[in-house]
Amino acid sequence: MLIMVRSFFFCLISSLSIQGTLTITPNDSIQGNKTLVSASGTFEAGFCTFGNSKDQYFGIWYKNISPRTYVWVANRDAPVKSSTAYLTLTDQGDPVIHDGSGSGVTLWFSNSSRTANKPIMQLLDSGNLVVKDGDSSNGKFLLESFDYPGDTFLAGMKLRTNLVTGPNRSLTSWKNQEDPGSGEFSYHIDAHGFPQLVTTKGTSFFNRAGSWNGYVFGGVSWQRIISLFSFSLVVSDKEVIYQYENLNRDTVSRLFLNSFGVAQRLIWSHNRGWEAISNRPADQCDYYAPCDVNSVCNVANSPKICACLEGFVPKFHEKWSSLVWSGGCVRRVNLTCDGDTFQKHTGMKLPDTSTSWYSKSLSLENCETTCLENCSCTAYANIYINGTGCLLWFDDIVDMTKHSDQGQDIYIRLAASELDHIGNNQSFDSKKLAGILLGVVAFTIVLGLATFTYIKRKKLAERGVLKIFHWKYKKDKEDVELSTIFDFSTISNATNHFSDNNKLGEGGFGPVYKGVLKDGQEIAVKRLAKTSEQGAEQFKNEVMLMAKLQHRNLVKLLGCSIHQKQKLLIYEYMPNRSLDYFIFDSTQSKELDLTKRLQIIDDIARGLLYLHQDSRLRIIHRDLKVSNILLDNNMTGKISDFGLTRTFGSDQIEANTNRVMGTYGYMSPEYALHGSFSTKSDVFSFGVIVLEIISGRKNRNFQDSQHHLNLLSHAWRLWIEEKPLEFIDDLLKDSPTPQEILRRIHVGLLCVQQTPENRPNMSSVVLMLNGEKLLPDPSTPGFYTGTYHHSIQVESSSRSSGAYSQNEATVSVLEAR
Ligand SMILES: *[C@@H]1O[C@H](CO)[C@@H](O)[C@H](O)[C@H]1NC(C)=O
Ligand SMILES: *[C@@H]1O[C@H](CO)[C@@H](O)[C@H](O)[C@H]1NC(C)=O
Ligand SMILES: *[C@@H]1O[C@H](CO)[C@@H](O)[C@H](O)[C@H]1NC(C)=O
Ligand SMILES: *[C@@H]1O[C@H](CO)[C@@H](O)[C@H](O)[C@H]1NC(C)=O
Ligand SMILES: *[C@@H]1O[C@H](CO)[C@@H](O)[C@H](O)[C@H]1NC(C)=O
Ligand SMILES: *[C@@H]1O[C@H](CO)[C@@H](O)[C@H](O)[C@H]1NC(C)=O
Ligand SMILES: *[C@@H]1O[C@H](CO)[C@@H](O)[C@H](O)[C@H]1NC(C)=O
User: Are residues 26 and 142 in the same domain?
Assistant: First the structure.
């Protein structure tokens, strides 16, 4: 056997590994500790063992992640016992593992009659192990490991459920942490009724992620998830295909079904290791149908998590009151199928759809009518969160969970007489009161017991389920420091000793220079004014915090450098300057056509959503403006300048400050007047930016001699006069898609509403921009008439502005006029 060792190539990638080979042909093999490596060295495949067992498996793992994290094991249920085992390809291109003594175990079966002349096996950088025909240039794979999922779902992989022929692809858990053999949990799309993502244990449901809401499978807290990933579900008569992609190309992520049946979505960072950004099941209500039928589960009411739907009563009252939920609930009054009504429930994870019926086109009214026409129909709802589609349920309602702000509305059928009953529910009579008092006493006793068992169980669960992830916290801060603190002389050399030729501009915080590091990487260096009060330690901490924020739509902060009193911030370099350079300039603005502008609006929204909803740090930008949006080579918009951001613990939503900083024209009324800021103040600034991008005009310098209006009120006036298209930049006037522009103006107006409560949050904004959420009517925007109140206390402080732009400085001192 011949083993190709392309060490010359791998030296470029990693000086550590010289053992990886790039391809396998029928003349090659993989054996012992030789490995197959993907082209850019992301993944590695080879023989491995688990735990104390000597059994050998052929697996794929991340090459540069330690401790070793497996994403796939080929012969998971057929380990080889001999250490002389090797893997090779047959002449037809079937990978086989031989135990070294002659008889072979075939890993994959493919009965297609193919004619591979020169089969080669390669490991792709997506983690897909493929066999292709070296003689054919059509790029098709004869075989790919992505068609045979293990316990890990990677970006680009497809989970298919084929209604006609099968096979149905699913993730299957390992037996336990040390045995990759097929365990009892399976994660797949259940396509009986409307497709839903489920985890099953054996043949029964273990967890249901809810039905597809047009965006994601709704049963997890998905608002943060959609800032990192995009999901797609393609449903046809024959097949349902589910997949996801990372929005940021650099994100390393995986979804992993652990051996306890918990599906964890994880992202990797060098500083924190694998971080779980969602777990399913995450709480008691996430297990399948904990409250049995016709009930709602709500963890917020723990330990009394189950409640009957209105119009229903516990099937077994006594058991129910001692927190034993089996049997669920039954109707108080049977349906008559004549004059029945519906009771609306909001914020729900919709019930099990495996026996549902659906139509993508039926309106909500017709949905209700259709349900009424069939006596066994018990509930209806919109399919999608944008208020379209129709889903019907029959007979018992199973596995419905209260899901706060992220859930959907559902209408449950009740006998007409029940409506009065529910209406009267509020009125108290003394008999009821006595009953309630008795109930309270009984409940308190039970609660004590239940809390005790609950806590005990929870502890066990945590130990069991989460044990494997403890190691990720062990990595300490040190490696962060190494990557983010630059040597001052390095930066000085890179910028030609801060020469004027390298100067990109001057912001309020100080000048910005372009630099080139020794390895050729281009950087932008912000040299902070020496007057900054902040101590070196505090500064470093801030920088480290900010360097952790990584998103495709944020300018990456690479690190900082400190030399005596001199502080530098080092950013990735953005060749295309900032957005204001384009949209407010009569010649440059031609470069930005409608598609690009809409894309940039989307980019800013995504970046801001990430800042607002990162679970660890809630970042409020506070100085969002067009000059703070930088553009990369592809004209992707990136938010820059976190110089003013405040970091919060994630529970803190609003704070007050007596130091008002921001930029005239972008400040929300409550911030400018009372110094009160929240994520909704950023939403306001975002709205202004949207309107500026669409109109090509600055809010600040907007002159309208006729009406003495600012840009926002101008937009509003045109909107109520029903000629909103006059608002558009002349350059975009011939655009073929006025609806798209109208929607942006509409969203812009919603974002600049006077009161923060009336503005949408960024996750709603993202949905609205995509047309996935109905837009409420806007009312008069909150705009600043220019009268500042003397009562706010204003401190003078350091100033900031866009990284490269000089013409617009942040105001930190507000003058009365
Ligand atoms: C394998 O080796 C044989 C004989 O050494 C040679 O004829 C053949 O072309 C080789 N095949 C490949 C795919 O390299
Ligand atoms: C690789 O294999 C060689 C020969 O079997 C052995 O000496 C060496 O220890 C192995 N290295 C590792 C890292 O297992
Ligand atoms: C493929 O061929 C193998 C052996 O010839 C056979 O056992 C297996 O059932 C076939 N599979 C399919 C899906 O036809
Ligand atoms: C695949 O799943 C669908 C529904 O989820 C089911 O109807 C079908 O029978 C399954 N096919 C196979 C081969 O298991
Ligand atoms: C609502 O969302 C669905 C699924 O994403 C989409 O197909 C449909 O076009 C949307 N409808 C509207 C009116 O936006
Ligand atoms: C409702 O109908 C079921 C069977 O259809 C029956 O067993 C039950 O007694 C009825 N309940 C009432 C309150 O009439
Ligand atoms: C009501 O719906 C169920 C489930 O789809 C169906 O089996 C039944 O035939 C329908 N009944 C009528 C009267 O349409």
Answer: yes
Q: How confident is the model at residue 655 (pLDDT cuts 50, 70, 90)?
A: very low
Say yes or no to pLDDT of 605 above 80: yes
Q: DSSP class of residue 167?
A: P
Distance of CA 74 to the CA centre of its chain: 30
Which residue, of 556, 572, 588, is where some domain finishes? 572
Assess whether 622 and 722 both reside in one domain: yes
* Whole-number Cα distances in Å, 635 to 508, 553, 572, 607: 25, 11, 15, 15
Whether 73 is in a domain gets the answer yes
| pLDDT(253) > 90 | yes
3-state secondary structure 466-501: HHHHHHHHCCCCHHHHHHHECCHHHHHHHCCCCCHH
In this structure, the residues whose C-beta lies within 6 A of any atom of ligand 4 are: 161, 163, 166-168, 190-192
For residue 593, give the CATH number of its domain.
1.10.510.10
DSSP 814: P
Catalytic residues: 623
With respect to residue 451, please indicate whether it lies within any of the assigned structural domains.
yes
Separation of CA 182 and ligand 3 centre (Å): 21
Which residue puts its alpha carbon closest to atom 7 of ligand 4?
Answer: 163
What's CA 453's distance to the chain center, in Å? 34
Backbone angles phi, psi at 286, to 5 degrees: -80, -20
Share of the chain above pLDDT 70, in %: 78
Domain that holds residue 503: 473-572
The pLDDT assigned to 125 comes to 94
Cα 161 to middle of ligand 4, angstroms: 7
Q: Which residues contact 606 (CB under 8 A, 6 or more apart)?
A: 227, 247, 551, 552, 553, 766
Ligand 2 atom at shortest distance from the alpha carbon of 33: 1
Q: Ligand 4, residues 160, 161, 186, 200: which to mutate, most atoms within 8 A of Cβ?
A: 161
Q: In angstroms, what is the span from residue 340 Cα to ligand 6's centroid?
A: 16
Report the number of secondary-structure helices (H) and strands (E) in the chain: 15, 45
Query: Left (φ > 0), alpha (ψ -120 to 50) or beta: where does 311 sit?
Result: left
- Smallest CA separation from ligand 4 atom 13, residue: 166
Domain boundary among 282, 305, 324: 282
* 766 and 630 together in one domain: yes
What pLDDT is recorded for position 449?
Answer: 46
Same domain, 108 and 3: yes
Q: How many domains would you assign to the chain?
A: 6
Structure tokens that stand for 355 in this block = 């026996």
Question: Can you give the pTM of this predicted structure?
Answer: 0.58
Same domain, 72 and 220: no
Residues 714 and 590 grouped into a single domain: yes
Alpha helix segments (H runs only) across 499-593:
536-547, 579-583
CATH of the domain at 512: 3.30.200.20
What is the distance in A from the centroid of ligand 2 to the CA of 41?
A: 21
> Cis peptide leading into 738, omega within 30 of 0?
no
Q: Is the CB of 109 under 6 A from ligand 3?
A: yes
Same domain? 482 vs 600:
no
Q: Whose CA is nearest to atom 7 of ligand 2?
A: 33
Distance 445 CA to ligand 2 centre (A): 63
**CA-118 nearest atom, ligand 1:** 13
Is the predicted pLDDT of residue 381 greater than 80, yes or no?
yes
User: Do the domain assignments include residue 567?
Assistant: yes
Residue 424 lies in a domain: no
Same domain, yes or no, for 269 and 358? no
